[in-house]
Each structure stands twice: as C-alpha cells, then as structure tokens.
Design a protein that fits this description.
Blueprint lengths: L4 H8 L2 H10 L4 H5 L11 H15 L5 E5 L7 E5 L2 E5 L12 E2 L5 E5 L2 E5 L2 E5 L2 E13 L6 E10 L14 H6 L1 H5 L16 H24 L5 E2 L2 E2 L4 H4 L2 E4 L6 H12 L4 H11 E4 L10 E3 H7 L1 H21 L4 H7 L2 E2 L5 E3 H7 L4 E3 L2 H11 L1 H6 L4 E3 L6 H7 L2 H11 L20 H26 L8 E6 L8 H17 L8 E6 L7 H18 L8 E6 L4 H7 L5 E4 L11 H7 L3 E4 L5 H8 L5 E2 L4 H10 L3 H7 L1 H12 L11 H9 L5 H20 L1 H13 L6 H13 L29
Parallel strand pairs: 1-9, 12-13, 13-17, 17-18, 19-20, 19-22, 20-21, 22-23, 23-24
Antiparallel strand pairs: 2-3, 4-8, 5-8, 6-7, 8-9, 10-11, 14-16, 15-16
Helix pairs in contact: 1-17, 4-31, 9-10, 9-12, 11-12, 19-30, 20-21, 20-27, 20-29, 26-27
Organism: Gymnorhina tibicen
Family: Belongs to the glycogen phosphorylase family.
Catalytic activity: [(1->4)-alpha-D-glucosyl](n) + phosphate = [(1->4)-alpha-D-glucosyl](n-1) + alpha-D-glucose 1-phosphate
C-alpha cells in the first residue's frame, strides 16, 4: 500500500489546504510525509496491483472490500553491505499505525487440525485448535467523490483459554507463553515473488485470511435485507447476485472448499446447490505462468491441517473427473492432466486447477498472457469451457502514480486538457494535438529535468556519488529474478564500459544506470546478481577514464515510496523479460505515464503499450514468444552466441576472470555456469539485439526535441493503463455491477431523506 497521508489528502481534495496549514505551523509537509513508514504487506506487482484496484474501486463508487493479513512484519528492509543484500525485519508498526482502527467486536474464530466425524446428519469437523481473527480497518478514499471503502486486515490472536483448557494446567506460565504459537500466523510476510514455498505456516496464513473473510461476508449477507431467513434457515439463492469474490492468484484458493464446507456442513445445503452458488460467487485471476510459482500443496499437509477441506477437494475432483470422463471416454491422460490431484512422488493439490473448476470466470492480466493461459498452461480447461476464460489487462492508479508522485507533469497536462483526465485517463489522447507545440515540448522537458535534478540530489545525499543530471537516467527497478533479466542489463553496462575504455575520445551519450529491487532471501542466484551489479558499479564508478560518462547505482530497499521518487525522474524504462514470462508488468505503465521511454521485449503489457503508442514510439527488441518456442524446439546453445559475439565474450570473460572481483576471482562462477548451461531465460540470445537497440536509444537522446516528442506520444497513449479502466471491465464482465460517478454529499450536508443509500447490486 505504501504511504497513506499524501494519497488521502489528494483524494479528499485537501492537499493545498493541509500544506498551507502545516506551513503556518512552521513545518514542512514534505518532511512530515517522509516520516511515515510504507505499509509493505505484499511482495511486488501482485500486491501493488491490489492497492491500485482498491483506489479505483472507491473512485468508481463500488461497494468493495479489500481483505488481507495484517502482518506484524512486512516485506523485509534491504540493506546493501559490501555489495551483498542483507535483510532486516520491517517493524513497520513500531510507532503505531494512525490509519487503522481495530474492530474487536467483529473478531471471528478460525479452526485448524482436528478430525472429521461422519454421521447421518452430515460431517462434523471436531477437536480443532482455534485461533481468533481480529480485524483492523483502514479507510480507502475514492478520488473527490466522498466515497470511503474499507480495507480489512486480519490479525491472529490466541483465545484466552489457549492451552489452558486441557491437561497441561500444570504449567500456567508456559501455556501463556505458547499463545505466541497461534499469534505467529500473522507475524511475517513470506518474501517470495513468483516462487512457491510449501511451508505449513504459509498454508495456515492462506486458510486464516480465507476463513475469517468468508465468515465476515456471510455475516454481512445475513444482516442485509437479501439474507432473508425462512424461519431458521437462510436462503442463499441470491448470494451470488449480492456477493462477488475475486481470487487474487491462487493464494486464497482454499476459499472454494471453505465456502462449500460452510454451505454443506453448517448451512445444510445439498451439494449441487452449494456448488452452483460457490461457482457463481468466485472468479480467479492468474498472475504467472512460471511453473515454480504455481501452488501445489502436499496432500499430507492439507490432511493434517484441514482434514475436512481435503475431503471436500476430493469430492470436487471426483465429480469434475466423472464429468470429463463422460465427455472423453477412455482418455486417461486427459484425466491425469486435468485432475486437481497430482499423483507421482508426493501427492499434491494443484491449486490453479481448483480455482478454475470452482470459478465462473478465469482471467489473465494482459492480452498476450491470457492467450498463453488459454493455449498453453490451461489448454485442456479452455477447450472444455472457452467462455470461462477472459483477459483483463492490468492498470495503475493515476492518483498515486501521476498526481501524487509527479505534480509538475500532472499540472502541465491539466493546463492543456483540463483536470477531468484524472478520473478518465483516456482523455490523455487530447495531448496528441500538442505534440508539435514547441512551448509544450520545452515545458515537458523542463518538468523532467526538474525531477531529475531533485532525484540526483537525493542520490548524492544517500549514495555519496556525484550524478550528472543531464545524463540519461536509465532505470531498471523491479524484484530481482532471472526471468526479468537484470543480468542482461548488467552485460550491457559492461559493454558500454568497455567501449568507453577502448575509445575514450569517441562521443558517448552519458548515462546513469539505476538498478533496484529485492531478492527473495532464499534465492541464491538473485542475490549473486545483486552482488555482481554492485561489483560492476564499484569498478565503473571509480575508473577515471570513464568519469561522468557512465555511473551505475544499485538502489537500496526499493519500495513504493522510493518508486514515487525514481519513476518521475526516469528517461529510459527497462522492461526486458524473456518474451512469455512477465504476465503483465505494471511498472512499465508507471514509467510510460511519467514521461519515460521504454526499451523492452514483446512481453506482458509492453505489447499493448506498443499497440497504443505505435511500435515506433517504443524501443522494442529481441525474440517474440514464437521465437522463444522455436529456440526451445531447436535447443538453446549459449556457447554459440559467446563464440560469435566478441563484445559478449569480452564481458563474460571479465566476470569469469575476476576483473570485477579481484579478491575472489571465482566469486561469480555460479552465474557464469548458469548462463552457459542452464539459462532458462536465454540472456545471450537477446544480447545482440538489446545492445543494438540501446544504441538507437542513445542516438535519439542526443536530439532532445525528437526525444521529448516521443515522450509526449507515449504519455498521450497511456490512458488505457489506468486501473479505473481495468476495474470497469471486471465490474462489467465478471462481477456484474455498475460503477457510479455520483458524488455522495459530504457529511456536513443534510442528505435527501428519500434516497435509499443501499448500494445497488453486488459487493466485490
């Protein structure tokens, strides 16, 4: 979520008033804003997307709730010591959190372990351990519409009789200390991005948020006029018309068997009725195609922790497979491929399959990704129910990612096209009229230059390196992962360094290369990549032959509040994942909206950015998805590229020989070995095209006017990538609710008594 103060002031239309009031108290608002901790309760794009979605849902007047876990410790703080990443606990609640309100009156029990007893009256889950879920509510204000939605985060609490009801009454002290065991559930965020770690505590977290949230939703449904009770029993027929639940990846997949358990075991609905309601309630968004990221929980673990849920999953699977067998008799291989249970070795539950079978809609997050989902990853399911599969291209909120972080550009745009674009970003196309307006071109360039000077001062303060603000700011910020190919950027840096040293007199377009991002603590290769970048920076930044022509900076502790500083100052945005690996990306959109040009592959939303702006207004290079498949078919041979490209060979040899690690020449052996023998992401295959494309970037940068005109064309084409547009599509195609642009009267104005304020239709 990042910081809340400035975003709240902007959405409430109070920023200028607050700035002025605080100034009159002899304080500086910007200084005050820097004191607030980021709420870093997610890992990367997936968590930030949810935050943008909450902003858009409130701005569109949807009655929507964001549910999650109130981690005591969020994503770790990253320190760089001697070039290595070192993790520190993110004690973000140390000074309290003024934006949250604990709601003990809505505390709910969550059950674990135990056993299942079957009787004539149905299944009973008994002898369970209970953990309490305490909700904390954070307001989510819409933009200038007096709407405030709620983000409800659950915190784990031990019941007061925890470990005291049973036999160990003897050790009272130990029993109280053991309360920590229950409360550890919401202690810390697992720091993996695009990687599945099948730990028991993680499964507990996933079920904890799901069980608390579903009870909360059902309580709210029963309290509403729709949850009409037929004497004792609630009639749930209207449930899917009043409630839509969007599963953000498979992490909350246990919601499907949990809702079935509530309907069948507790509310005593017949299975078929319960299943129909469940399917119509859930929709699933897939966020990655990397096999190592797909959740596959061991059956033994689920059986121990959630025995009733395992039985329900087996029953769902049995009926699912019976249905497929009736359509494809004797096709046992299809049954194996489509089963929710993977046999062979340890039996596992494929959570993506569970989500597809238990949802009425499945979507990818960019056109190219949704195609891959349909034709490759889940092709059997798409063949069965093609109408279930959709695309919803991701977006970003223009409130945080333009108004808040880049007020200079936001104001310049407003002067030209008015202020309405903030709620309807498609209006940015009006900027096309000014692409040849010399004054506007100069003003756009001036705003960028001011942002760069400001960021350069920040860098000099933090990193003690002198930055040339007229150099090209070439920025690569995102989680560190092999598929995102920070290594390819690194090879380009070494290549530029070698060219400068080979011919110091030759014209070189000066660059400041900024790379930032966190590596999962257990991801050895990602940590080696960080060390390599810092080792290269050490050599480049201290070579007098290079001087101010090339500087390399690794941005420590990349997070939302740092993104808000670096993105508006960026000239060149690096989006260089291997085609077919980045589901969408959203950083790419933030840079585009803030006047950076993109160098990128035809991957994720880059494809649609090129479609909107015209491919000639992006620096597109490298293999397409088809080329990657073809290379896989032929077999990728890294050695071939090394042998044929002298500059690549030189760069690789320097890493290999210890040129960047003289004290330990073998330091980067693992990296080199990976690049030659098991590089799934084919860095060498795109190296030549990448370097050539970078030459075109430098050439254009020399012509400031032509560069800025291309910038304007990009900003003018960025409208599609508002999360407002994304959410309107979810609302229309999946949730079946109507967004409203009505401005609710402010609380100080009397409301029209005749108005029925019950939201019309579904809550998402």
């Amino acid at each position: 979520m990042g910081r809340t103060l400035q975003n709240t002031m902007i959405n409430l239309g109070l920023q200028n008033a607050c700035d002025e009031a605080v100034y009159q108290l002899g304080l500086d608002m910007e200084e005050l804003e820097e004191i607030e901790e980021d709420a870093g309760l997610g890992n990367g794009g997936l968590g930030r997307l949810a935050a943008c979605f909450l902003d858009s849902m409130a701005t569109l007047g949807l009655a929507a709730y964001g549910y999650g876990i109130r981690y005591e410790y969020g994503i770790f703080n990253q320190r760089i010591r001697d070039g290595w990443q070192v993790e520190e606990a993110d004690d973000w609640l140390r000074h309290g959190n003024p934006w949250e309100k604990a709601r003990p009156e809505y505390m709910l029990p969550v059950h674990f372990y135990g056993r299942v007893e079957h009787s004539a009256s149905g299944a009973k889950w008994i002898d369970t351990q209970v953990v309490l879920a305490l909700p904390y509510d954070t307001p989510v204000p819409g933009y200038m519409n007096n709407t405030v939605n709620t983000m409800r985060l659950w915190s784990a609490r031990a019941p007061n009789d925890f470990n005291l009801r049973d036999f160990n009454v003897g050790d009272y002290i130990q029993a109280v200390l053991d309360r920590n065991l229950a409360e550890n559930i919401s202690r810390v965020l697992y720091p993996n991005d695009n990687f599945f770690e099948g730990k028991e505590l993680r499964l507990k977290q996933e079920y904890f948020v799901v069980a608390a949230t579903l009870q909360d939703i059902i309580r709210r449904f029963k309290a509403s006029k729709f949850g009409s009770t037929d004497s004792v029993r609630t009639v749930f027929d209207s449930f899917p018309d009043q409630v839509a639940i969007q599963l953000n990846d498979t992490h909350p997949a246990m919601a499907i068997p949990e809702l079935m358990r509530i309907f069948v075991d507790i509310e005593k609905l017949p299975w078929d009725k319960a299943w129909d309601i469940t399917k119509r309630t859930f929709a699933y968004t897939n966020h990655t195609v990397l096999p190592e990221a797909l959740e596959r929980w061991p059956v033994d673990l689920v059986e121990k922790l959630l025995p009733r849920h395992l039985q329900i999953i087996y029953e769902i699977n049995q009926r699912h497979l019976d249905h497929i067998a009736s359509l494809f008799p004797n096709d046992v291989d299809r049954l194996r491929r489509m089963s929710l249970i993977e046999e062979g070795g340890t039996k596992r539950i494929n959570m993506a399959h569970l989500c597809i079978v238990g949802s009425h809609a499945v979507n990818g997050v960019a056109k190219i990704h949704s195609e891959i989902v349909k034709t490759q990853v889940f092709e059997d399911f798409a063949a069965l129910e093609p109408e279930k599969f959709q695309n919803k291209t991701n977006g970003i909120t223009p409130r945080r990612w333009l108004l808040l972080c880049n007020p200079g550009l936001a104001e310049l745009i407003a002067e030209k096209i008015g202020e309405d674009y903030v709620r309807d970003l498609s209006q940015l196309t009006k900027l096309h009229e000014f692409v040849d307006d010399d004054l506007f071109i100069r003003e756009v360039a001036k705003v960028k230059q001011e942002n760069k000077v400001k960021f350069a001062l920040f860098l000099e303060k933090e990193y003690k390196v002198k930055i040339n603000p007229s150099s090209m700011f070439d920025v690569h910020v995102k989680r560190i992962h092999e598929y995102k190919r920070q290594l390819m950027n690194c090879l380009h840096i070494i290549t530029m360094y070698n060219r400068i040293r080979r011919d110091p007199a030759k014209l070189f377009v000066p660059r400041t290369v900024i790379i930032g991002g966190k590596a999962a603590p257990g991801y050895h290769m990602a940590k080696m990549i960080i060390k390599l970048i810092n080792a290269v920076a050490q050599v480049v930044n201290n070579d007098p032959m290079v001087g101010s022509k090339l500087k390399v900076i690794f941005l420590e502790n990349y997070r939302v509040s740092l993104a808000e500083k670096v993105i508006p100052a960026t000239d060149l945005s690096e989006q260089i994942s291997t085609a077919g690996t980045e589901a969408s990306g959203t950083g790419n959109m933030k840079f585009m909206l803030n006047g950076a040009l993109t160098i990128g592959t035809m991957d994720g939303a880059n494809v649609e950015m090129a479609e909107e702006a015209g491919e000639e207004n992006l620096f597109i290079f490298g293999m397409r998805v088809e080329d990657v498949s073809e290379l896989d078919r032929k077999g990728y041979n890294a050695q071939l590229y090394y042998d044929q490209l002298p500059e690549l060979k030189q760069a690789v040899d320097q890493i290999k020989s210890g040129f960047f690690s003289p004290k330990d020449p073998n330091l980067f052996n693992d990296v080199i070995n990976m690049l030659f023998h098991h590089d799934r992401f084919k860095v060498f295959a795109d190296y030549e095209a990448y370097v050539k494309c970078q030459e075109k970037v430098s050439e254009l940068y020399l012509n400031s006017k032509a560069w800025t005109k291309m910038v304007i064309r990009n900003v003018a084409a960025a409208g599609k990538f508002s999360s407002d547009r994304t959410i309107k599509e979810y609302a229309r195609d999946i949730w079946h609710v109507e967004p409203s642009d009505l401005k609710i009267p402010p609380p100080n104005e009397p409301r029209d008594a005749g108005q029925d304020k019950t939201p019309n239709g579904t809550a998402a």
